[in-house]
Specification:
Length: 71
């Protein structure tokens, strides 16, 4: 939930996390066609209609937006 997430994210990293979630939604977890085979969270995802294609999609972005090691 929002309250749980709010408590977990350190104060100095909230802006970073906010932008990371937006990029994740724009690049990977897209509403019309999510890239489930590209997603590192697909095993934890509860979305019932996951889309896994045989072909790996090569995108023009670097998939590092949710690396939270520096928090």
């Amino acid at each position: 939930t929002f309250i749980q997430a709010k408590e977990m994210i350190p104060k100095g990293k909230k802006q970073f996390f906010h932008r990371a979630i937006i990029k994740f939604g724009r690049n990977i977890c897209k509403a019309p066609k999510p890239l489930c085979n590209e997603c590192f969270l697909s095993a934890l995802c509860e979305f019932p209609d996951k889309i896994f294609s045989q072909k790996t999609i090569t995108a023009n972005y670097k998939n590092d937006f949710l690396i939270l090691d520096n928090i």
